[in-house]
TrEMBL record:
One of its GO terms (cellular component) is cytoplasm. Keywords: Activator, Cytoplasm, DNA-binding, Nucleus, Phosphoprotein, SH2 domain, Transcription, Transcription regulation. The keyword Cytoplasm applies. The keyword Cytoplasm applies. One of its GO terms (molecular function) is DNA binding. One of its GO terms (biological process) is signal transduction. Pfam families: SH2, STAT_alpha, STAT_bind, STAT_int, STAT_linker. It comes from the Eukaryota. It is found in: Cytoplasm; Nucleus. Residues 514-650 form the SH2 domain. This is Signal transducer and activator of transcription.
Length: 650
């Protein structure tokens, strides 16, 4: 008998609950009903781990919906035709999302939806089964004690219990598969997304859906444990030779406890990674400066609110640190906007130990301070309904510095680790750091601009950076960047120092102009000349300096003129758009002229920058800008490209 048919035989109260579970379109009741036999014969949990099988199953699902739709057409069931057609369209959208590269696995979600929807029904079915077993056992007990039980009656009762135990084994089979998906796939994918968001990626790291799934499975497993306990009570009343409960219950108990403990141990996570209020990014901590971090338990039982204490500690192979501040907090549902069970540590700080005069840990590998990785650990104990399990969560590796001058190098280490490593326990990562491929590297660079300014790097800008790193190549995808080339402490000319100088400049002075796309930015001198070569006089573009840390240049098409560079001191006083607005050079005869007329490719300057202008023009701004320029007569004919370099220094 199909599971769906068996559910139809439930008492009226359970049927009402079944109707309530199927009130949404993610798995409509019509689809579940008309395709029940096909749905129950598919390996949905295996498909959650096998992309090719998942695609096939979704395609076959669409074909079955087509067949069902044709039947309704023949039967002239207009309403059912409409519903099935709408459901098919929804599943087609799911299939497109699933086939999209980089999408979160739709099939595992589908498998979990099916299982999660049935878990309340499973609980009620077990309760219903338990009532039936108790009634049979009471009858068995009475007749057995009064010697009125016939052999066939014993066999009948034993057979019913065997069927129940067999169903319980099947339930645990499915639960093990489901926990495997949650722990080894969904949670791992969330952890990877969290790593990427820490270095600027725009991924979704909300835990609410995972919490629902974890909690749902945990509730089901606690129900199984309670069911097994009641079976034990029945056996205590009376037993007989070859009693199946005595033979099978211990193994079922161990199995249920093992699956539940595995789920619980994976359910304690760090929701918000350690960060300082004024830091360059998360995971860079400074001694004696407060930082915050939040943990969360994905198995949500309201009765445990404020009862589970979380204790903070440190793990390190290098320098040793004491964690100071409020290092013990209770998991609670007050500090989370979504009502999750969290412990939000907001006032922690670190102090380096000076044991043995050096404070060093067990590692003898010579790494710089900003290459040393440390982990913050969180311990608690889950105790509920006779089960006690120790839980531990740990942060992503952090870099600990002692002064602000180490921030830039420390953040480079965080970027490199989380770009390349998914082994969050690998504290020796920088002892033999791997190289990054250009696709990985370019994506990470774009995230830096995206997170800082809400505008990432386009393909042309990334190509310029690739050309700077690797020279002219037909395809950069196989090129790699070594850690030592990206960033190494005490070397001033690394790529990261140059790139971060630009990023800081843009964030500090040019964010609006960058977000509007007015700054071309990453374009080489050769490319710049090529772009401006055939443009009308007065066309200009803005690009970052390739030789000056934190510098921006503008170049234009003109016939004569040279200029002196701007410095950071000028930009603190004058916004960059006002410099462009009032920029002047002096032709022979002291005639001032602004050569900047059209932003590349042909946008009138005032149209591009006008909304940023201050109300007043001239006066102090004009005087301040124009004093840096002088005339230098040149006799070379034809349009030329002139450049103002080094406008900003940091």
């Amino acid at each position: 008998m199909a599971q769906w048919d068996r559910l139809g035989q439930l008492p009226a109260a359970f049927k009402q609950q079944l109707l309530e579970l199927y009130d949404r379109d993610s798995l409509p009741m019509d689809v579940r009903h008309y395709l029940a036999v096909w749905i129950e014969n598919q390996e949905w949990l295996r498909a959650a781990r096998d992309h090719d099988l998942a695609v096939v199953l979704l395609q076959v699902l669409l074909e079955n919906l087509d067949i069902q739709h044709s039947r309704f057409v023949q039967e002239e069931s207009f309403l059912l035709q409409h519903n099935i057609r709408r459901y098919k369209q929804n599943f087609q959208v799911c299939l497109k999302e699933f086939e999209c590269p980089g999408s979160v696995c739709m099939m595992s979600t589908f498998a979990i939806i099916i299982s999660a929807r049935f878990s309340p029904i499973i609980e009620d079915c077990m309760e219903h089964t338990m009532i039936c077993l108790e009634e049979q056992q009471d009858e068995f007990d009475f007749k057995y004690q009064t010697h009125k039980m016939e052999g066939k009656q014993i066999k009948k009762t034993s057979g019913y219990i065997c069927i129940t135990l067999s169903d319980l084994n099947k339930l645990l089979d499915r639960t093990e598969d489901l926990v495997d998906i949650l722990v080894k796939k969904e949670l791992v994918e969330w952890q990877r997304r969290q790593q990427k968001t820490c270095i600027g990626a725009p991924d979704d790291v909300c835990l609410d859906q995972l919490e629902k799934w974890f909690t749902c499975v945990a509730v089901c497993l606690f129900q199984v444990r309670e069911f097994l306990s009641k079976l034990e009570e029945l056996v205590g009343k009376v037993s007989y030779e070859n009693d199946p409960v005595k033979a099978q219950k211990p193994a079922l108990q161990r199995r249920a406890d093992t699956v539940l403990k595995d789920l619980l141990k994976s359910s304690f996570v760090v929701e918000t990674q350690p960060s300082m209020p004024q830091g360059k990014g998360p995971l860079v901590l400074r001694t004696n400066v407060q930082f915050s971090v939040k943990t969360r338990l994905l198995v949500k039982f309201p009765e445990l609110n404020h009862s589970m204490k979380v204790v903070v500690s440190m793990e390190s192979r290098y320098r040793r640190f004491n964690v100071l501040g409020t290092i013990t907090k209770a998991l609670n549902m007050v500090e989370s906007q979504s009502g999750g069970m969290v412990a939000d540590f907001r006032h922690l700080n670190l102090k380096e130990q000076k044991s043995g005069g050096s404070g060093k840990g067990v590692s003898d590998i010579p790494l710089s301070v900003t290459e040393e990785l440390h982990v913050i650990c969180f311990d608690t104990v889950f105790e509920l309904k006779g089960l006690s399990v120790g839980l531990q969560a740990s942060s992503l590796p952090v870099v600990i510095i002692s002064n602000s001058s180490q921030q830039q190098s420390a953040w480079a280490s965080i970027l490199w680790f989380n770009m390349l490593s998914q082994d969050t326990k690998d504290l020796m990562f920088f002892a033999n750091s791997p190289a990054a491929t250009w696709p990985q590297f370019g994506e990470m660079l774009s995230w830096q601009f995206l997170s800082a300014t809400k505008r990432g790097l386009n393909d042309a800008q990334l190509e310029m950076i690739a050309h700077r790193l690797f020279g002219n190549q037909m395809n950069y995808d196989t090129c790699t960047v070594a850690w030592s080339k990206f960033s190494k402490e005490n070397t001033p000319d690394t790529f990261w120092v140059w790139f971060d100088g630009i990023l800081v400049m843009v964030k500090t002075f040019l964010e609006d102009l960058w977000r509007e796309g007015l700054i071309m930015g990453f374009v080489s001198k050769g490319k710049e000349k090529s772009l401006l070569k055939k443009k009308q006089s007065g066309t200009f573009l803005l690009r970052f300096s390739e030789s000056v840390i934190g510098g921006i240049t503008f170049s234009w098409v003109e016939t004569t003129g040279t200029v002196q560079p701007f410095t950071k001191d000028d930009l603190i006083q004058i916004p960059f758009h006002e410099i462009i607005r009032n920029f002047q050079i002096f032709e022979p005869g002291n005639i001032p002229e602004n050569p900047l007329l059209y932003l590349y490719p042909n946008i009138p300057k005032d149209k591009a920058f006008g909304k940023y202008y201050s109300e007043k023009s001239g006066g102090t701004v004009n005087n301040c800008v124009s004093k840096y320029f002088f005339c230098s007569s040149q006799n070379s004919p034809g349009p030329q490209v002139r450049t103002v370099t080094n406008l900003m220094r940091f």
